[in-house]
Amino acid sequence: MKVVGSFFDGMISQLDHPYLDQLIRYHHFLKQRNALLKQFAETGRRDLTLLGSYDQELIRLSIILANRRAELLEQMAFLFQDHYSEISNGTEEVSVSYQTEALQPDFSEYFLSLRQKDLATKNSNAGIHKDDYDFLIGEHPIRKIGSQGQQKSFIIALKLAQFQIFEEYKGEKPLLLLDDIFDKLDDERISKLMELVSKGTFGQIFLTDARPERSKAILGKLDAEVFFFELEKGEVKK
Question: What pTM value is reported for the model?
Fold first, then answer.
């Protein structure tokens, strides 16, 4: 799930600049290694010493980056589950499962064992670019069994957990943007979500909704300072 991977990579990169440098370096070496594999196939000549240098750097960086990804998910796990429980009234258990080969004790040997396959496919078949994330409700993928409301609640809980992680690292509350927030949520989930975000935990929040009358009805009930802005034909009306 490349979009999901980009979400977590983007999040870590904002918190940990060395991670971003290492991620860029990883993709540079991956691109160089794949180009070398294609060159081998086209010319019939193989520089295994150069290939080996790329192998060692990709193995090293895969382990570093995978550990940082796993660390972030561990930090987010409680916050994420807690927010989802509040939105869903505690009726469902959710989690994010990080799938990677780079944290296996024999990853280096595994990476090197695929060299013949890499030469045949002209592509690198191991490394953190092969990692994946599973969004689970119970023990099942939420994209398969979850309702639209459950899936939307999942994403919202992730964003709220992201907010709190940023606040912890940066020492200040970031702006929170929740786009088209009420779509796909039933009345109970909307009510629970509004109770959650109106506690003051999340500071300034921007909500977007294609149905302004719905937003006004929901937000008008909150004991919080609320401003409404409507965008019509390129103009903003307060």
Answer: 0.86
